[in-house]
Amino acid sequence: MAEESPKKKIIHVHLPEEEKYTTVLTAGNHDLIADEGIHVEGGKDEGPDPYDYLLMALGSCTVMTVKMYVNHKGWDIGNIFMELRHNKRHDEDCDKCEDPRSKIDVIEKEVIVEGDLSDEQLDRILDISQKCPVHRTLMSEIKIESSVSRK
Q: Residues 77, 108: contact at Cβ < 8 Å?
């Protein structure tokens, strides 16, 4: 068995019996709610949906990484914002575009910064934004090991 990282994250997820989709997510001392939107039968829109959380993880990691970098460089920067969009679409060189399974997931990520920065600094921020740990995880080969147990 592969050696486990000492920084292994454990997240608890609980979907109560009486709920259709409203789910409690626990990370350390933080409880969050996930739900499906009202466009899904039984969804109550009481929290972000799972893809929202995925985008929020990527966005928050990105702005934190950029902030660390610009602070290290001593650049004068104001607020940092992210806008992220997720959709499924055909790749530009799609051979089987008529097959709905041929669509790929696309995440569009836009970093918006305040401050008087040069074009070179903005290019470097873009480069650094693609080096955040969550971005690198999503772009790498991912292995998900699943199991089921009784309680």
A: no
